[in-house]
Design goal:
The chain has 416 residues and is of the alpha/beta class. It has a domain of 202 residues: Rossmann fold (3-Layer(aba) Sandwich). Helix content is 35%, strand content 15%.
């Protein structure tokens, strides 16, 4: 996108960074990580944005996440590291809606992004900012998709990448990281163990830590999900958003986007969606904290789930997730781990959308919420599919019939 005229001197609309824990302001013109071991918000001069970005002008811009450039942190005179991240489609799902007794149900399909998941958004922004600041080496702990996205964007930028993932991470994720030239290491343990390695290596390896919310820019990339959703629904937000929650940047980012759009006067209603955070009962620290009325979540022991993106036993942004849920009058819901694989297959069969197990968990949660009356037929609902099913071939065990003699096929039996 041509950025001339957006800001004098080729700057950006960011005013400062702000501590999420105590509100301390930090400068935005240098590399920042956290404050008091907690994440940072990127804050914008929204009155200035209002003068530079007219809502109607978005229609004439390329349909990529960079169409919202004035509401993103990358300076206008710095080229993004990009694969042309298109707006993910908002797909009506009539058969699933009918099964659930809902009138308005959509799936926001993030599987169609460049690296097959919503992680493309956050890592496009984080790597673009790293490139802008001249960072030469990146490291990330990952449950899978974030590592693949960072490896791809780092390769695009010519930045060295180190990826640490649990040894049982899906093979597809391992392969995509290695093919993109990252130095990939399997770790005996969980993503928190991978994170400990990245933290310990910051000084001896001189890498920049791209962990979830340990730098402020992945969140801004994820924020574009909320901007897109509002635009796709003609600036009226749905009643309910159902979102799979591990580290929580997507849920937090969307909630931030909604607040910014409301301040800009872009929304046709002040009514905000109820944000539903979905986890597996095999790893549900946010649900447990929500149900206890606590602001911070205790680490979840013996975490296990086939939905690898949900296997985050301790999230650094736990209080940010819980704040957003409660401010929206939403809920945190845990679904039975044993039902996720079947829900994945049933959802794909019903609508053909390549949903990941994390999205299947959301469908299970939606069924529960409709059944107990917390979601009604009149509610408009959006479920986020955060990745493609092809990344999780080990999650669904197939028992396919074998034809041993192609010359002697019982076609009556095939139809039965």
């Amino acid at each position: 996108m041509d950025s001339e005229g957006f800001s004098a001197g080729g700057g950006c609309c960011v005013s400062h960074l702000e501590s999420t824990i105590d509100g301390t302001h930090l400068p935005c013109d240098r590399v920042q990580t956290m404050h008091k071991d907690r994440p940072l918000w990127v804050r914008y001069d929204l009155p200035f944005v209002k003068t530079k970005l007219k809502q109607a002008s978005l229609r004439d811009r390329p349909a990529t996440l960079w169409r919202y450039r004035e509401m993103l942190p990358l300076p206008f005179n710095s080229a993004p590291v990009t694969f042309g991240e298109g707006m993910s489609p908002l797909l009506p799902v009539p058969r699933l809606a009918k099964e659930l007794g809902l009138d308005r149900l959509w799936v926001k399909d993030e599987s169609q992004l460049p690296t097959g998941s919503f992680k493309s958004r956050g890592l496009a922004m984080a790597v673009s900012m790293a490139h802008h600041f001249g960072i030469k080496r990146l490291a990330i702990p990952t449950a899978g998709n974030a590592g693949g996205a960072m490896a791809a964007y780092a390769a695009r930028a010519g930045i060295e990448a180190y990826v640490f993932m649990p040894q049982d991470t899906p093979i597809a994720n391992q392969t995509e990281c290695q093919l993109a030239g990252a130095k990939v290491f399997l770790v005996e343990g969980l993503i928190t163990d991978c994170g400990a390695i990245v933290k310990a290596g910051k000084e001896p390896m001189a890498w920049f830590d791209c962990s979830t919310l340990k730098e402020p820019y992945r969140l801004e990339g994820k924020k574009t999900m909320g901007l897109e959703l509002a635009e796709q629904l003609d600036w009226r937000l749905p009643d309910v958003i159902i979102y799979p929650t591990g580290g929580g940047t997507g849920l937090i980012g969307m909630w931030k986007a909604f607040a910014e759009m409301r301040e800009l006067g872009w929304l046709k209603s002040d009514k905000m969606p109820r944000m539903i955070a979905v986890q597996s009962d095999g790893c549900a620290p946010i649900v447990r904290a929500f149900e206890k009325g606590e602001r911070f979540a205790e680490p979840f022991e013996n975490a296990h789930t086939i939905a690898s993106g949900l296997r985050v036993p301790a999230a650094v942004g736990d209080f940010m997730i819980l704040d957003a849920i409660r401010e929206s009058i939403g809920w945190a819901v845990a679904v039975p781990e044993a039902k996720i694989a079947r829900a994945m297959q049933d959802t794909i069969t019903a609508e053909g959308i390549s949903v990941c197990p994390e999205a299947a968990a959301c469908v299970l949660a939606l069924k529960e919420l409709v059944r107990d009356g917390r979601i009604t037929p009149a509610d408009s609902v959006v479920v986020f599919n955060t990745g493609t099913a092809g990344k999780y071939t080990e999650s669904v065990k197939l028992d396919l019939p074998l034809i041993k003699d192609s010359r002697n096929v019982d076609f009556d039996r095939l139809a039965s």
